Each structure stands twice: as structure tokens, then as C-alpha cells.
């Protein structure tokens, strides 16, 4: 019988492999990961440790060389630290001088700004006086009323005060980030403002920021901006309007929504009647268009509910509340 030639490099087997040993016996070795976990250190480390234990500590020139290298390294590090310290000390007067100069410039600019603001207020008063002298009494009253309704003037009256406060903030156990469910959002303030307008409010202010027809309430990260000005918790929403506006707000859809947020997330919600409110004029208000009136018409707020809730212009403040 002719047997096929064996492949190069492989031994020829004559018959079945010997189960008890011999060249045909298979041997199994651990894979790479198993060997890595069983022997985490390179064998060279073990050999070096055994050699040091056998030969003892170094002596002679080799030991002196190792000690000299360590000492030289320490000297170099110390020299670098001394140089860095001296350079820092030498530059400190210059930094102090620059910082003091910047602080002085800030104070000077602030003083100039205050002086310019004072001058602007004086000019605004002069313009208001000239306007009042040229206009008749009825025209001045109508102008003041329009300024009150548009947010250009300070107003006083009774109405409602809505207060929203962030609830307790927890930390997510998995991500480690703060949870924001208990924080008041911009949409919450938008909802409150819209509900107050619907309930008959004639002027609204959020944390000192008067709302106008062009006001925007937006979220910027965890901060809320009202006309690009940040406001924070607690959020106090003051509105001038009917005397029963607080009760209507509490019983309406907005009040029910905030009650739900209070029960679920701990957000504090209060709606109370306010007898004496003063709402400041809108900051940075710009007059975009003017149309002359030939004959004064009826007041646009003649159909508004009468009583203490109607906003009353504060004549002590003119030209946008300055």
C-alpha cells in the first residue's frame, strides 16, 4: 500500500496515536489572556529580584554612580524651582501694577457712566417739561396713560403677586449630574405671564423686569433671561389688574399646573392679592415709530375695568421712567 507523502516539517505517524504518550499525544497550553492574568509581571522582574537577593546590595562604583545620579537629579530640580520662584517674585510687582491700573480704569469708567446717566436724566426732564408745556392737559394725560400701558412709565395699583420657587435639587446616582425637574423653567414663567394677561392684567413685572409687547422669556442653560436680563429663584411675578385676579389665576389652568408641580417636584407656588404694587418702567425701551394725532380720541383703556386695579401713571417719572 502506498501512503501519501507527509507534509514538510510534520512527522510521519505510523498507525494511530498512542493514548498513553509518545509523539501522537496532544498537549494543551493556556491561551494568551489566561497566561497574562496568571503571570501579570514579566519574568524579567522576578529574575532581577532573585539576582539582587542572591548577590546582595550593590557596592563600589556602581552604587556610587546610582547615588550620584539621584543627587544630581535633585540638584537640577531644586535649581529649576529656585529659578521659577525668583521669576514669579520678579513679575509680581508688574502684575500688581497692571491689576491696580485696571481697577482704577473700571472705577473711572463707572464714574463717567454715572455722570452721563445723570445728565441724560436731566435732559429727559427738560424734554418732558417742554412737551408738557406744548401739549394741552388732555393730550398730556392721554400720553401718560399710553406710556403706562406700553411699559414706558412707572405705574401703581392693586392686583396679584405670583411667587414660584425652585424645589430641592437632587443628584442622579448614575450620572452624578444635578436633576432639573424641580427647577422653574422659562416655559413656566411664560405660562404664568400669559395666564395673568388672560385674567385681565394691565401691567406685569418679573423680578423687577417689566414686560412689554416685545418682551422675551428664554432659557440659557440653567438661567432664565427676561429681555436678556437674568432672573433667579424665587421668581416674583407682580401684575396690576382686577382685584380677583389672584383667585382666578389659582383656580385656572396655570394655577392647577403649578399645584401639580408643587406636589410632584416640591416647587413652591403662591398666589396672593396685592393692594399696593409699583411696577417700574421697562429698561432699554426704544421708541420705534410715532404717528401724530390730529384730534385726541377716546382713551384706549376706557373699556378696561374701573377701580383700584387699573394702573395709574406715576407722574414723578417721565420719559421711560428715568
Going by CATH, what is the homologous superfamily of the domain at 135-283 and 304-313?
Answer: Protein of unknown function DUF881
Number of helices: 7
User: How would you characterize the largest beta sheet?
Assistant: 6 strands, antiparallel
How widely separated are the two ends? 119 Å
Order of helices and strands: HHHHEHEEEEEEHHEE
**Unreliably modeled segments:** 1-16, 296-308, 315-322
> How many distinct beta strands?
9
Q: How would the global form be characterised?
A: elongated
Q: Strand fraction band?
A: 5-15%
Task: State the CATH class of the domain at 135-283 and 304-313.
Answer: Alpha Beta
Q: What CATH architecture of the domain at 135-283 and 304-313 would you give?
A: 2-Layer Sandwich
Percent of residues in helices comes to 40-55%
Tell me what you see in this structure:
The protein is α+β, with helices and mostly antiparallel strands. The chain has seven helices and nine strands. 44% of the residues lie in helices and 15% in strands. It starts with 31 loop residues before the first helix and ends in a 9-residue tail after the last strand. The N terminus and C terminus are likely disordered.
